[in-house]
Write a structure and sequence with these properties.
This protein has helices at about 20-30, 35-50, 55-85, 105-130, 130-145, 160-180, 185-210, 210-215, 225, 230-255, 265-275, 285-310. By secondary structure, the chain is mainly α.
Length: about 325
Amino acid sequence: MTPPASAATPPSPLAIEPGSPAAWRIAIRPKTLWIATIPVLVATCLAWSLDGAFSAWIAAVALAAAVLMQVISNLQNDVGYTQRGAETGARIGLPRATAQGWLAPSAVRRAIVVAIVAAQLIALPLMLRGGWPIVLTSVSSTVAAWAYMGGPRPIAYTPFGEFTVFVFFGLVAVVGAYYVQAGTVPAAAWLAAAAIGLHAAAVLLVNNFRDRVHDLATGRRTLAAVVPAPLLLGLYTLLLVAPFALTLAIAAQVSGRWFLLPLLALPRAIGLARALPVAPAGAAQNALLFRTVMLEVAFGLLLSLGALLHRAT
């Protein structure tokens, strides 16, 4: 559901052996897994900070399930674009393993099925513990991960990709992981979930901004493809900066100054907002994509640290 998060030069096709671990790494895109990891980390630290609730095994299971959801999405993206003929030489982003012939589409589809089954089995203890809210969370997250590039009308072909990422890699991920720890979800957790989701949406937006010309040529109508560039750049700035306003709300909600720590990352967000409008197409935009991921990581780590310090002091 999220874009590739590496600015490195794509490996040469000659360097990748079909079916090799390197080929699977290209399809799975490990550097994107931060977007699944950060929500669980933030939720776990917040649950301990605000409700005194912490279970290591719950945190580990929630993290494993979240990462598998990201893997499902990434694998489906890889094979889905290839099967729809949307992978052309004009695309600026990193190569897809199935399009390059490094993985057979049938093998990737089987891996998706395995990942879906594994995710549900891993999440089963959480579903038993949390009841229907966690069952709904697990099932809807799986469907969304697959439907982003699967089915007759993939989300990736509509303007709703960023909203979907906001919901499932922000609201659902943080609130769900908090709920299984504490059995409740206070307002501060919802605010944190929205903040994380906004940054996750910014990652997809810059990815789609980079590919907007290619996407129009292949029939994709992403938000970046249908919204004028000036408005899109303004939205990117909003997605980058709004989470910092939410940290102010969290700090006020819980009367905790440590929750202001994420503001240390605000200059990085402002730098990204200024860089995208002037970045040349190609590698420079790939680098901004990776920097946007790292902004979410920095923000999430600082928010988690603030939560821990709030509890400890």
